[in-house]
Amino acid sequence: MRRRDFVMRAAAAGGYGAALTMLHALGLSPDVARAAPPRDPTVGRGRRVIVLGGGMAGLVSAYELEKAGFAVTVLEARGRVGGRNWTVRGGDRIDSLTAAGQDVTFDPGQYFNCGPARLPSHHHTILGYCRELGVPLEVEVNASRSAYVVRKDGRRVRMRQVVNDTRGHVAELLAKMTNQGALDAHLEGVDRTRMLDFLRMYGALGEGDAYAGSTRAGFSQAPGAAGQGGIALPKLSLADVTDPSMRLAHVFEEDVDMQPTMFQPVGGMDQIAKAFARALDGRVCNNCIVRAVACDATGATVTWREGRDTRSQRADFVISTLPAPLLARLPCNFSAPFAQALRAVVLDGSCKIGWQAPRFWEREDEIYGGLAYMDHEVRFLWYPSAGLHSETGVLLACYNAGPGGVAFGKKSLAAQLASSRAAVELAHPGKSRLLSKPVVIVWRDQPFSEGPWARLPTDSPVYAKLNEPDGRVYLAGDWLTHISGWQEGAAVSAHRAVNAIAARTRADNLTAPV
Amino acid sequence: MRRRDFVMRAAAAGGYGAALTMLHALGLSPDVARAAPPRDPTVGRGRRVIVLGGGMAGLVSAYELEKAGFAVTVLEARGRVGGRNWTVRGGDRIDSLTAAGQDVTFDPGQYFNCGPARLPSHHHTILGYCRELGVPLEVEVNASRSAYVVRKDGRRVRMRQVVNDTRGHVAELLAKMTNQGALDAHLEGVDRTRMLDFLRMYGALGEGDAYAGSTRAGFSQAPGAAGQGGIALPKLSLADVTDPSMRLAHVFEEDVDMQPTMFQPVGGMDQIAKAFARALDGRVCNNCIVRAVACDATGATVTWREGRDTRSQRADFVISTLPAPLLARLPCNFSAPFAQALRAVVLDGSCKIGWQAPRFWEREDEIYGGLAYMDHEVRFLWYPSAGLHSETGVLLACYNAGPGGVAFGKKSLAAQLASSRAAVELAHPGKSRLLSKPVVIVWRDQPFSEGPWARLPTDSPVYAKLNEPDGRVYLAGDWLTHISGWQEGAAVSAHRAVNAIAARTRADNLTAPV
In this structure, are strands A262-265 and A137-140 parallel, antiparallel, or unpaired? Predict the structure, then answer.
């Protein structure tokens, strides 16, 4: 029996649900979460999809829908594409829902990524688009052993001290236990000699298997010519390395999404969004603010404001990438459970602050890219990875989220700037006076975003509900994936929505009267 | 008493040695191993220095001597500057003392750094020259969590597994000991609760303080949309992570000279040498092979071959940067102890092999830069850090040294290439067929180098002896520093030689008849 006949019989017997079941059985399931979208341009022939929102999920949706033969319209409220993928440069304007707007006054060539600013090497979907669309990438330095870990009292140590003195201490403690025989029952076939050999090497242990410090942690006297040998820094104490303030420094760069090698597009993250917009030439309508979605049995009608006009268009399907709270506020005829789920989504709060400055961190601290971990409400300093050795750069001096980010976002602009300056002063005494031309991004105050990402557990009923279509409306966005807050999440969510629509279109075609 | 009078009286009383002692006392010591060279152009007025060798030590010496007002001639045996700082491109020729020469046939834009290929961010002398001379730098990816560690039997794991599963195991073992109270006597004021909090976070411990694996080590199923959660890879065993074959993977990237952030000049390491040559416009004489050095009480005469001609020049001082065994073979009137010390220096053996290839490591393995650690005689694969996402790159597939490097260098070219191919096949099954256009550098076979660096302990009498001038001849080179094998060492050694000559010139001037 040919596949088509098989599906048609199943559909005739049980309708759409049965046809979907058959599609599952045939490996055509729309639920394969990382399946590539269809590249057969006949799939969507004669069908139209309206995509709400021209952020990454919307752009990827539209791009893939076009490849699958669908007619596409993208409605984007802002005058630019990208959504949270947003790079500001001198001359740009930053609006706010609650505070005064800011004019960006950076020098030419300087930029700041207000939203995403790094790409891990295993986020192959978004990296694949960079390759496909010709977006040049460069290395983003996400971890530098020269970067500081800074305590509230201003004490600062380098990451090479944290990493290597920690190794020294844990190795010394384990060597003591191994030598005492206390570990014999736990070594799983590794004998004491091998364990000790490992620990001595791993922790740079010295005489008596004690850790006396190591040049891995850096030098108090740099090695030089002739008689000048390098002298290791005094080691951090066990109390230092187990201090709760070190937590971020210990775990951040080993998070699988933060590990090297990482990338950034040359010239700003928005190069990705702009490349999609070029590929979608004419299908992205900017300054179109969605006002309503009305769904029926055969399609949906979307109404929007464009300048002073109100327009509407009918389509076979809608993919909404709007943040859930914004979609929840629109008059849409969603089912009650779907509407209720939308209203249950809460967005997080996150703030970023960037300053233009001469590169004192390079000249005086030998810090080239990477992050400083601050025991301070701004959490991070983040040094620019590009333009190394040039005069000027944009230093990030605040990136917080969660309750701390929400609270920080409620402060006045003046208080936010003062806090950011104080953090720079703590890490780089005497240097905060060199900071100029700040930009402050409070994501909860950003029109059309109202937050950096959703706080939505992937095991919640709300998450499950919103991952299913409501009538002919599908949702897409990073927050509907296990890669929330990343462009990769936006892309795989878009793929899933496109696959689902393609599968349903195939099913519709198969079950249509012959 | 004015400083000049003070020194003159001392000199009058005790001669040159006493004057030097006074210079020490005044903080003008030539032995300050990382002191900046003089920038006063009157210091060397009317004095000439001949520099033997146009590698990094020679170029830095000449550049600084000029700033201090000395007249300078650099004699370089090769047709290019840089010495071991050497980048090959299509059209270049690689000569050998023992094997057939090789023609480099890389495509345009491809290159291979035969010698140094990375700059640590704390090597501020050489980085300072890059800034001063306008040599653009880019990030060199020296550590990637995606890179493989490959065992002899072909089993390969990713660096993220090695690093994070090791942390998991050591944290689990220490948590067991902490819970048993076995560490109580060793926790140096850290209580059990704090220690356990630290270990759980550090090692990603799970239930019962056991390490059950972590997504820090990577995924067996990548996280995706909707219901597709990420699933961690099965953890490596304690036996795996303590395996002696893991040694290099555990320690290499925490060596203080190998830690991120690291750099490479855009377009090849030789951009640094070329920038010095431009700054020394006309003072570097290529194709000049030194034949003899004759020193007397007031200066030295250097004789060299230039094509078919023999030439000689007299100078007040000589700085020789020639490898010790090469200088030892020349007819020079060195003192017996100095000549004996020169003859005692042994050069190491090191080999590098590069292949042009399509970037299968990026497309199929998500490896962008960084090193693979091979339990194989080639030791490393090293992936290109530039041109990410382009079609073609040059893959290093051999970089060994020490006894292994010496032995590898004695193999036939065919055997070397076969070994290198086999290593690539081990790390990337099926891919070695894509390798083409190899270049093999055996440093012991390189004319005018005869080795990659010296094997010379910094606490040996030979090292001490050669760090002192013999008459008016000074030596400079990375091997005379505690930063052997690095361009930074070459630079600080050059600074020391220039400082010593400048101090001696000042002393000569002070003690000359008024």
Answer: antiparallel
SS3 B182: coil
Helix (H, G, I), strand (E, B) or coil at A269: coil
Q: Do A481 and B225 touch (CB under 8 A)?
A: yes
* B460 in contact with A, Cβ within 8 Å: no
State how far the Cα of A331 lies from the Cα of A207, in Å rounded to an integer. 74
Q: Assign domain B31-80+273-345+454-511 to its CATH architecture.
A: 3-Layer(bba) Sandwich (3.50)
Count of residues making up chain B: 514
Instruction: Tell me if chain A has a CB within 8 Å of the CB of B183.
Output: yes
Question: Cβ of A457 under 8 Å from any chain B Cβ?
Answer: no
Across the interface, do A256 and B385 touch by the CB < 8 Å criterion?
no
- Nearest-by-CA chain B residue for A219: B256
CB-based contact, B184 to chain A, within 8 Å? no
Contact in structure between B295 and B472 (CB atoms under 8 Å): yes
Q: Is B191 on the interface with A (CB under 8 A)?
A: no
Domain ranges of chain B: 31-80+273-345+454-511, 87-147+259-268+349-445, 160-242
Measured over all CA atoms, what is the biggest interatomic distance in chain A, rounded to whole angstroms? 91
Helical spans, DSSP H, in A333-430: 336-344, 360-363, 402-409, 413-427
Angle between helices B159-180 and B192-203 (to 10 degrees): 160
Sequence-separated (6 or more) residues with CB below 8 Å from residue B366: A121, A122, A124, B146
B100 interfaces chain A, CB cutoff of 8 Å: no
Superfamily of domain A31-80+275-345+454-511: FAD/NAD(P)-binding domain (3.50.50.60)
Find the DSSP H helices in B378-486: 402-409, 413-427, 461-466
Residues 6+ apart with CB under 8 A from A67: A37, A38, A39, A41
- The CATH architecture that domain B160-242 belongs to is Up-down Bundle (1.20)
- The C-alpha atoms of residue B221 and residue B227 are separated, in whole angstroms, by 12
Q: Number of CB pairs < 8 Å for A and B?
A: 264
Q: Is residue B401 pLDDT above 80, yes or no?
A: yes
pLDDT tens digit string along A285-302?
Answer: 999 999 999 999 999 999
Cα dihedral value B351, B356, B357, B363, nearest 10: 80
Distance from the Cα of A152 to chain B's closest Cα (Å) equals 19
Chain A residues within 8 A of B478 when measuring between CB atoms: none
- Least Cα distance to B479 among B282, B321, B298 occurs for B321
Chain-chain contact of B244 with A130 (C-beta, under 8 angstroms): no
Tokens for A3? 């596949």
ipTM of the prediction greater than 0.90, yes or no: yes
Q: Is the peptide bond before B261 cis (omega within 30 degrees of 0)?
A: yes
Residue B410 to chain A, least CA–CA distance (Å): 30
Question: Measured between beta carbons, which residues in chain A are less than 8 angstroms from residue B188?
Answer: 237-239
Q: What CATH topology corresponds to A87-147+259-268+349-445?
A: Polyamine Oxidase; Chain A, domain 2 (3.90.660)
Residue A166 near chain B (CB below 8 Å): yes
pLDDT tens, residue by residue, B417-459: 999 999 999 999 999 999 999 999 999 999 999 999 999 999 9
CB of B181 within 8 Å of a chain A CB? The answer is no
pLDDT tens per residue, range A415-427: 999 999 999 999 9
- Contact of A222 with chain B, judged by CB distance below 8 Å, is answered with yes
Question: What six digits make up the tokens of A88?
Answer: 């500001």
Kindly list the residues from chain A whose CB atom is less than 8 angstroms away from the CB atom of residue B182: 177, 180, 182
